TrEMBL record:
Alphabetized SUPFAM superfamilies for the sequence: Outer membrane efflux proteins (OEP)
Annotated compartments: Cell outer membrane
Organism: Hymenobacter coccineus
This protein's name: Transporter
Molecular-function GO terms, alphabetical: efflux transmembrane transporter activity; porin activity
Length: 423
């Protein structure tokens, strides 16, 4: 009996230990990996890429010979005994395009560009998803810090309110000071509730992005730590022009529009095709058609030359040319927008870095100011209004520092996306 108890305890021990040890907090890299492995929009863009690759492979077969089989059976009655007959034919034919005016070559190239466009779309979707993850992750961590600050401020005010209440009951303080402290305490509790609600909402969004159920517990980093340096301009704009998936996609689309001009131009050129066919005919006798089997074979070369189409093909060619010019203009405008976006994100990042530097000094000064005012208030040399103002300044400075750090991380992720860097 004792042996069975020991065995059962040994089997249950790992599970009990796993339940007692909390799960490790999710890092930013963990959230990225979870989002990239489960997000539905990546699946849809991946399927579109596979469809484009299949279309590319199908276009390559247009220049290859085609082998076809056909069979026909006929039965003729009611036209007189001289025409009554029946039979069956079977044939095999091989068709090979010889010259298409460049149409097949251009269509094959367009299909290849379509596959590359789909691949760039997948990459762009990945970068967009990772940018959303980064922004939501740092917002959630920052809100966690804000909750801690709000809880600390409430604890401070609660202790002050209790002290003022005791003084008022002992006849050593004023009721107005106690009521003022209560008002400040209720305001702090309201801000704490609002911050907690924002944190819950941000956690819900993050769970949805990484594929976790709504009721699942989620632990993140305790706070926003690390270095927050000022970044030089360097070659961010040039890297964005060569690495951005959306710019590469527009470039490929412009090349495809240029090839569409060749497709339209090919309609004005001759089309040459060759075919080789073999037939087998088995026929039952009739008065004019004897009982006989045939097995003829023949080769054909067909030439189709457009003569009068009332400028239809020329107008189609002009249409494709204008479309290519429009896509070229769109590409030039997109390049300008990307340069502007990179400069804006770089400025935003450096602003956040300088703001962190200033807010760090502000927090240290506000805390020292609060310490001095608290000592003076306890010594009876400072009014309650000044003490509450010092507490508000200290809490606001700490909250602004957290916002600045979150802004830096979000701007850092935005700059990475703007330059088209791979995550």
């Amino acid at each position: 009996m004792k042996f069975l108890f020991c065995v059962g305890l040994a089997l249950l021990a790992p599970g009990l230990y796993a339940q007692s040890v909390p799960a490790a907090p999710l890092s930013l890299a963990d959230c990225r990996a979870l989002a990239l492995s489960q997000k539905q929009r990546l699946t849809s863009s991946g399927r579109r890429q596979l469809a484009a690759e299949a279309a590319r492979d199908a276009a390559k077969t247009n220049r290859l010979p085609k082998l076809d089989f056909s069979s026909t059976s006929y039965y003729v009655r009611g036209l007189g005994s001289t025409l009554n007959t029946q039979g069956v034919t079977a044939g095999v034919g091989v068709t090979q395009p010889i010259y298409s005016g460049g149409r097949i070559r251009a269509q094959t190239a367009i299909a290849g560009l379509g596959a590359r466009v789909a691949a760039e779309e997948v990459q762009g979707t990945r970068q967009q998803l990772v940018a959303e993850i980064d922004q939501t992750y740092w917002q959630t961590v920052a809100l966690g810090d804000q909750v801690k600050l709000a809880e600390g401020n409430r604890t401070q005010l609660l202790a002050l309110e209790r002290d003022l209440n005791n003084k008022f009951k002992a006849g050593l303080g004023y009721k107005a000071d106690w009521l003022r402290a209560q008002v400040q305490l209720r305001d702090a509790e309201t801000r704490l509730l609002r911050t907690r609600d924002d944190q819950r909402l941000s956690l819900l969004v993050l769970r949805q992005l990484i594929g976790r159920p709504a009721g699942d517990s989620l632990r993140l980093a305790a706070s926003i730590e690390g270095e927050f340096p000022v970044v030089s301009a360097a070659d961010y704009a040039q890297r964005a022009l060569t690495q951005r998936p959306d710019l590469r996609r527009l470039t490929l689309n412009n090349q495809a529009d240029s090839l569409q001009i060749d497709v339209a131009r090919s309609a004005r050129r001759p089309q040459v095709n060759a075919s080789v066919n073999a037939l087998y005919l088995q026929q039952k006798p009739g008065f004019l058609l004897p009982d006989r089997n045939y097995a003829p074979a023949y080769a054909l070369v067909s030439v189709n030359l457009p003569l009068v189409h009332w400028k239809e093909n020329r107008l189609l060619e002009s249409q494709r040319r204008y479309q290519a010019q429009a896509s070229q203009a769109d590409l030039a405008e997109a390049r300008q927008q990307v340069e502007l976006e990179v400069n804006r994100d770089l400025l935003r990042l450096n602003q956040a870095a300088r703001r962190i530097e200033l807010q760090t000094l502000t927090v240290a000064q506000a805390q020292e100011n609060l310490r001095l005012n608290d000592n003076r208030f306890k010594a009876g040399l400072l009014s309650l209004v000044d003490l509450l103002e010092a507490q508000t300044l200290s809490q606001r400075a700490a909250a602004d520092l957290v916002d600045a750090k979150a802004e830096y991380r979000i701007a850092e992720a935005a700059l990475t996306q703007a330059t088209g860097e791979n995550f």
